[in-house]
Each structure stands twice: as structure tokens, then as C-alpha cells.
Design brief:
InterPro entries: NAD(P)-bd_dom_sf, RCK_C, RCK_C_sf, RCK_N, Trk_Ktr_HKT_K-transport
CATH class of the largest domain: Alpha Beta
CATH superfamily of the largest domain: HUPs
GO biological process, one term: potassium ion transport
Strand content: 15-25%
GO molecular function, one term: monoatomic cation transmembrane transporter activity
Helix content: 25-40%
Number of domains: 4
Keywords: Ion transport, Transport
CATH architecture of the largest domain: 3-Layer(aba) Sandwich
Radius of gyration: 30 Å
Protein name: TrkA domain protein
CATH topology of the largest domain: Rossmann fold
Number of helices: 14
């Protein structure tokens, strides 16, 4: 042909419908081995060139002028024939034009990929469409991108830690909000955008992460640490072993668990169904933080080194939540320290963990004496009280909220002494520096407290 055209291989019922639409875009050449079918369709498709030919024969292709070819669509039921079409186009004619394969089985998928052919499965499309209609609140895009559920649409039906807050505060690494639909209006999200109940959102990211995020938006199901990543990495230090606490955490947190050894090999081989123990010994903490990408939380030992340099390194370099395991488990409760960088995030994480572990939680705020409090500190006190009231209203419960006039570090440590097996939760600004002249509250609490501490960098 003297103009750009498309070749369609196969003329079944579905392919005839496809030919009707493709021919509106490009002049189309259609091949089929059934001469009766080809002749019967010529009157209907006068603007197309219908040829009685075997698409798997190289002779057929040699008779065609492929100079202006735009793409090939092969829809034959036999995967071997479709594969042969790909082989001829790529190896005999050395064409790099797009090849689209409509596949009705799982045969030869890797071989199709080797020929850079795009596989579309009509059955999967139909099933997903039907399921999407039935669910109405959750659907996967299987013909966009990789087609591996890395793009989904979700209706926001439940209040959670993902709703009613700026997207920039979510610190999402393995997923992103691509679009928000609110009252039939499209919102292109930015860092200041907020997800609200009854919104529809388009999410992109790792499929497993998106599945967890969808559950949160649909049902408010607690999913920590999946909003940060799907893997948990624990670092075993024989001087301060964390193995038992790690096993306890692995029984409660849904994630892929990996235990690696620090400095020395494990004294005993750990056999736990949920914890992978690779034959790896790490000598530097920096290696731990680059070991895996999709980490949701690190479980780290309490280091007793000179000047606590290792803990300072962790605070400075860890970009994901980390739990300093001090052996204070099983957890009987959780303490949310509101003297943190983001009180809302602390409270949300605490409530989420309390659901996962099925334990109570307490909220603590240390304040200066009223005559010594600055205006900003007084505003923070009112903000903390308002947050607690809001959460009490949302969750229809009374929150154990204690305000005490004490130094944040000393007050938290003294308070936690009364609750030795309570997990302490706090967060900090990861850009803040640890210095002698400006005390780092979260670092000092983590260093001195006897409880295990979950720390979230923001």
C-alpha cells in the first residue's frame, strides 16, 4: 500500500468487530485461511484488503509490500501460529513495528516477550470488566502499562490515616495517587491535595502495595507497614539479640520478613516459616539500608557503642520506619508520644497498630508550665487536644490522653516506666540535626527509654 496500514491476522467473530474499528483508523489488510469467510466479508469491508492466506507462511508475507506497515494484530486461536507470525516479522523481515497478540491461553508468554510482542487477553479483559461492575468500588487496569495491576481505581469508603491529610505528608515511596475524581470532577493531585471519603482515586505503584492501600481506602483495614513498603528487615546483633522480638513481630505484621546478621554469623540456624534468613553477614549499617528497596520497617537492636554513634547514624540515614527492639515484648499496649514532629501521624500509626496487635493505647503530651510556655507551644497543646477529640469522634471511643507538666524526654521516660511492655511510637523531622546545643527529643527518648520504640522519619 502507498499509505500507512495495519495487518490483521484472523477473521473470527471478535476479529470482525475489531476490523470494523481498526479500519476506521487505518487502511487494513486482513488475512484468514478460510476462503469462504474471506469472500463473504469482501462486500461488507470494501475499504479493506481481505486476503485468503496462511499467516504462518513466510510466502504470504513475501507477497505483501510491508514498506508502510504500521502494526500487526494477530488474533489466531493457536498460540503456535501467533508465535510463528512474530518470528517471521522479527527474524525474517527484521521489522520493529508493533505486534499485538490476542491470546486465549498462557502458552509461549516468555517467547512472545522475546519478540517484543504486546499480549492482550480478551478473556481477562472481559472478566475484569464484569468483576469491576460487580464490585463497583475497585478495578484493575490490565491493559495499561505492564497490565500487572500496577494501576487501579478505588472508591474511598472508609476513613483512615490516608484520608483528610495532604498527600505530601503520606511519604509514599512505592505508590502514588495519579488522579482524584470528586463529584464528577477530575483533580490532578499535588502535594497539597487531600483524599476524602466518596472520592474515586487512580493509584499507581507496586501491585502488592496497591492491594493493601486499596483495602485501607475501602475498609479502613490496618495494614502497617505496607504504606511504607512490603518487606521488613531485621538486623540481628548477638550482643543484644532481637530474634525473639522479631519472631513476635512477624506473627503480627503482614510483610515479607528477612533476618540478617550483623558482624557475626548466627549462633543457631533460625527456622521460622515467615522469616527468610539469607547467608549474609553485614559489617556496616549503611549496607542494611540499601539491602532492599521496598522496606516498610527495619527492626534494629539497641547498640551500646561509644557516644551512641550508631543510633545517631540510624536517625540521620534511615528513610523508613525503624523499630529499636529492646526485648520489651509481647506488647501489652502502645504509648503515642505527642511531643513529635507530626502529632496526627503518631496518633494514626498508634491506632493502626493497636488494631493489628489488638492491644490498648495511651496518648501522652508533655508540656511546659503555663507561665513558661510560648504561644506556639500553647497552640500545640490545643492542637493535640483537638486531634484527640476528633479521633474519639471518628472511632466512637474514649482515648486515654494524659497531659503532664514535664520535660518531654524525662516525662516520657518516667511515664513509660509504669508501662514496661508498651511499645512507644514517635516520629521526627528527618532533616533535623542531633546536636548538644539543641536537644533532639525523639533521639534522646529512643536512646534512654527501656521500652521498644517505633520511630518514623518524616
Amino acid at each position: 500500500m502507498d499509505e500507512p496500514f495495519v495487518i490483521l491476522c484472523g477473521l473470527g467473530y471478535f476479529e470482525i468487530k475489531l476490523l470494523e474499528e481498526v479500519s476506521k483508523l487505518y487502511p487494513t489488510v486482513a488475512l484468514d485461511i478460510d476462503s469462504i469467510k474471506v469472500n463473504s466479508l469482501k462486500e461488507q469491508f470494501k475499504n479493506c484488503l481481505l486476503i485468503h492466506a496462511d499467516a504462518s507462511s513466510i510466502l504470504t508475507w513475501k507477497k505483501l509490500d510491508l514498506k508502510n506497515l504500521v502494526a500487526i494484530i494477530t488474533t489466531l486461536r493457536d498460540s503456535d501460529v501467533n508465535l510463528e507470525v512474530c518470528r517471521i516479522i522479527r527474524l525474517n523481515f527484521h521489522l520493529d513495528k508493533p505486534i499485538i497478540v490476542l491470546s486465549y491461553d498462557n502458552d509461549h508468554e516468555e517467547e512472545f516477550k522475546q519478540y517484543n510482542a504486546k499480549i492482550i487477553k480478551p478473556i481477562d479483559l472481559a472478566v475484569e470488566t464484569v468483576i469491576g461492575r460487580l464490585k463497583r468500588n475497585y478495578s484493575k487496569a490490565i491493559n495499561i502499562g505492564l497490565g500487572e495491576s500496577e494501576v487501579i481505581e478505588v472508591s474511598v469508603l472508609s476513613k483512615s490515616h490516608l484520608t483528610d491529610k495532604k498527600l505530601s505528608t503520606l511519604k509514599a515511596k512505592t505508590w502514588h495517587v495519579a488522579a482524584i475524581y470528586r463529584k464528577d470532577q477530575l483533580i490532578i493531585p499535588n502535594g497539597d491535595s487531600i483524599i476524602k471519603i466518596n472520592d474515586k482515586v487512580i493509584l499507581v505503584g507496586h501491585p502488592k502495595t496497591l492491594e493493601n492501600i486499596a483495602n485501607i481506602l475501602l475498609k479502613g483495614i490496618p495494614q502497617f507497614p505496607s504504606q511504607y513498603g512490603n518487606e521488613c528487615v531485621a538486623l540481628e546483633n548477638q550482643q543484644r539479640s532481637i530474634i525473639n522480638e522479631t519472631m513476635y513481630l512477624a506473627e503480627n505484621l503482614l510483610a515479607k520478613w528477612t533476618l540478617i546478621s550483623y558482624k557475626l554469623p548466627l549462633s543457631d540456624r533460625l527456622n521460622h516459616p515467615k522469616i527468610n534468613v539469607p547467608d549474609i553477614i553485614m559489617d556496616k549499617l549503611s549496607e542494611v539500608f540499601s539491602f532492599k528497596e521496598d522496606v516498610g520497617v527495619y527492626v534494629l537492636p539497641e547498640f551500646n557503642d561509644f557516644l551512641h554513634l550508631k543510633l545517631k547514624f540510624i536517625f540521620k540515614n534511615c528513610a523508613k520506619p525503624f523499630l529499636i527492639a529492646k526485648g520489651a515484648y509481647p506488647y501489652k499496649g502502645i504509648i503515642a508520644v505527642m511531643n513529635s514532629f507530626d502529632m496526627l501521624s503518631v496518633l494514626e500509626t498508634t491506632i493502626e497498630l493497636s488494631k493489628i496487635f489488638n492491644i490498648e493505647y495511651k496518648v501522652l503530651l508533655n508540656v511546659m508550665p503555663d507561665n513558661l510556655s510560648s504561644l506556639s507551644e500553647k497552640i500545640q497543646i490545643r492542637k493535640a487536644a483537638a486531634l484527640v477529640r476528633d479521633f474519639e469522634s471518628v472511632y466512637k471511643t474514649k482515648i486515654n490522653f494524659k497531659t503532664q507538666v514535664k520535660n518531654p524526654v524525662i516525662g516520657t521516660i518516667e511515664y513509660a516506666k509504669h508501662f514496661p511492655n508498651h511499645l512507644v511510637v514517635l516520629n521526627y523531622d528527618k532533616n533535623s540535626k542531633i546536636s548538644f546545643f539543641k536537644p533532639h527529643i525523639d533521639y534522646l527518648i529512643t536512646k534512654k527509654i527501656k521500652n521498644s520504640v517505633l520511630v518514623i522519619p518524616l
